[in-house]
Structure formats: structure tokens, C-alpha cells
Here is the input.
Amino acid sequence: MFFSNKKAEESTQSKEPAEEKKAAEEEAKKTDAKKKKGEETSSSESDGESAESLSKADLDKIKKLIADQDKEIETLKEQVKQYKEKLIYQLAENDNTIKRYKKEIDSTREYAITKFAKDLLDVRDNIELASQHIKKINIEETKDLDELKGHFKNIVKGMDMTSHVMDNCLKRFQVVQFEPLGEKFDPNIHEAIFTLPESEHPNNHIGVVMQSGWKIGERVLRAAKVGIVKK
Here is the structure.
């Protein structure tokens, strides 16, 4: 019995250091955990301060960027305003230029017509002189044949002079006469009035000119009236 109690006492003594060791280890773990938590808390606070500092820097950058963009927008608005003013000025200038050219064209046309009309006055004067000369001749009372022939020659001469003046006037304005006798028929510049079954000219050529044609430059002013050969 004594032996048994001694053995139990030894067992109790051996358990006490083990439990103390275990308790010490748990206490150490708790201490380490608190220490670690404290470090984490400290680190978290430091990170928060760093994050707060970074956000402020970013905010400053954003404010600066917005300010730069506002400044650029104002610059662009000013440029748009200037371009708009230039566009309005240019449109007005173009309108004035068109009006000026139109006025010059109208003036040139009016001047050309005036000059042409002035040249035609010479023709009108010659015709009037010939008419007055004819009226002065008393044909019914004139019995001298030679005298009548003289009057007739003068009338013909006056008509030739008038025709010559008229031709010169038309030439100055590039209006020219053309006689297509013997040429191949061209419906663009000739107007067929009748056909000729026999002629010295080849088939489908112009055998007779009833009325001469006229051109102004390269454009046909009046087609020639002709008779074409159809053998």
C-alpha cells in the first residue's frame, strides 16, 4: 500500500511540470498572437495613412488635369469663334466677288451689244442714203435710157458698199458667212430644201445654195438652205 501511494505521488509530480509547460506554451502563443495582431494593426494604420496620402496626390493630379482641360476648351472655343468669323467674312467676300463678276459680265455684254449696234448704224445710214437717192429720181418722167442706167448703176454700187460695210461689221464680231456649194451634205450646218436628180456634183452633195449660212465663231448661227444631189 505504501508503494502504491508513493507511485501515485510520483505520477502527480510528473504531470504538474507537463501541465505547466503546456500552459506556458499556450501563454506564449497568446502573447505571440497579440504581438502579431498589434503589428498587423500598426501595419494597417500605416497602410491607411499611405492610401490617404496617395489619394490626395491623385486628387491634385485630377484637379490639375481638369484645369488644363478647361483651359484647352476655352482655347478651342476661341479658335472656333475666330474660324466662324473668318468663314462669315469669306462667305461675304465670295458673295461680293460673284456680284462684281456678274456686274462685269453684264457690263461687257452691254458694251458688246452697244458696239455692235453702233457699227450697224453705218449700214443703216447707207441704206437711208440709197433710199433718199431713189426717191429723188423721177423714173416715170425720165425718158433718157442712159440716165436711167446711170441711176441704176449708182443704186447697185450703193448696195454693194452697204453690203461690204455690213460684212465688215459682222466680221468684227466673228460672224462670218459660208457658201457650201459642192460640199457634202451635213445636217448640222445645212438645211435640205429639195433634191436634184442630175448635177455636176457627186451624189449626196450640195448642188444649189438657196440661202447662205452664217456662223458665229464655230457655232452655226443660221444653217445654209440648199438643194442636194440625189441621183
Summary: The beta strands are 175-178, 190-196, 206-211, 213-216, 219-222, 224-229.
